[in-house]
Amino acid sequence: MAVASPPPTRDDESIPRKGADMTDNAPAVHVSQLVKRYGDMVALDYFDLDVSQGEIFGLLGPNGSGKTTAINCILSLLTYDAGTIRVFGQPMTPTSYALKRRIGIVPQNVAVFNELTVTENIDYFCSLYVPKKADRAPLVEEAIDFTGLQDFRRFRPGKLSGGLLRRLNIACGIAHRPDLIFFDEPTVAVDPQSRNAILEGIRKLNQAGATVIYTSHYMEEVEQICDRILIMDHGRHLALGTADELKAMIDTGERITIETFDLTDDALSTVRALPFVIDATYDGHELTVRCRRGDHNLVDLIGVLRGAGANLGHLTSRPPSLNDVFLELTGKALRD
């Protein structure tokens, strides 16, 4: 949860609060023309990113796209070859301790101490930002209440379920009341009830004024909570917008699936030749057709199939999803 090594503290140094010594209308994060190389490999290729204060911002990309490298550069955990990074209007450097105290991180891998209780873990991570125990105590209690861990405060992590561990992970990352919070896959391997609780908690943090940068492989989560979404690949910015704006950028207008057990090769070829069909696949019992935007795609497709003598069963038609956007822009699934 700490942003780099614990910074040195001074008794006379107050804990930065929202808006302290910052430009009110500055982006929470501004990244311009960021380049990061590992030898001959370019991890970030003149990457741009702007996150407004007060939004939940989704950052999506397949594995190896540069997401983690970009975040580590923003946090000044990595050096980079070119570009500029500003957080709340100020340059971000390894010694930007005031800025780092305004940031919280909830990593994908649960990062807590098994030897400490729930309360002790939260207090420890909070102490990295808030040196005085008297100042920390109410913050620790607030984090426990916020994440619903009141009945588990004396438990050690080994006694917690996966969902409760995730909540502890979040509590450790937010106890110091950060203004900017990075959530990296916070709902991996948790049950639906815990997932809903985590997403609702993120919304509440945002409503209380925190800016959130959110990464996930669960497209429905991103679409559910993010105000804007950036898709990146090969270290580059590919597309940015709301979920609806991103869907409007691609050719796919709808995806139709039809149950049929007797589709011939000739009939499949006829379907693929239809002017509104982008691609069509058939696995022996279900036909899946990705279509361009049109008013009569389903009717026209059914007409062709019936004309070919195919017996049709259950069918569905759905609008494009974020996964369709991802596939069309990157040529791969999110987890590739």
TrEMBL record:
InterPro entries: AAA+_ATPase, ABC_transporter-like_ATP-bd, DrrA1/2-like_C, P-loop_NTPase. Residues 9-21 have a biased composition (Basic and acidic residues). Residues 1-23 are annotated as: Disordered. It holds the Pfam family ABC_tran. Keywords: ATP-binding, Nucleotide-binding, Transport. Residues 29-259 form the ABC transporter domain. GO terms for molecular function: ATP binding; ATP hydrolysis activity. This is ATP-binding cassette domain-containing protein. It comes from Bifidobacterium aerophilum.
